[in-house]
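Following up on my earlier thread - several people asked me to post the actual chain instead of describing it. Fair enough. Here it is, all 156 residues.
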Amino acid sequence: MCGDGRIRPSSEAKRATPATNPKKRVHFLLTGRPLGGNMALYDMSLEDIMDSLPLTEPVLLILLSLAGQPQHGYSILKDVERMSNGRVVLSTGTLYGALRRLLDDDWIERFEEEESSRGRQAYRLTPHGRRNLQMEIDRMKQITRLASLRVVAKES
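Reply from S.P.:
Thanks for posting it. Predicted structure:
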């Protein structure tokens, strides 16, 4: 406790980051924002961005779905299911919640489809989103290379 009656946080609590504090980590992975803050992606350091990785599988698949071309919600749902061989089947609530967070964090943007007669909303990756998707892919490649080396070394 401080002299003025306030409780002083422990040095461990002061150091707690999304990477070390489970509550902050879960909040960060769900929202893409630090607990108690709302930091835009372009305000984040490379270290902060790396702390937001790994992405959840549904978010990764949504981003991969948008990597090739802009898509509307139903197309994203079907593409995610197809890419995962039916393992990941998103509800519309899960999809649109994830899209809203990705929009808020400037990973994706809305895209007006010229030939759409039904006024469907399409989405596409932003440069920030594409860069961070590539960082996640690179991270996964590094882990896969390491795993392959360790498994081969163990089998020898």
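Residues 1-17, 36-42 have pLDDT under 50 and may be disordered. That should answer part of your original question.
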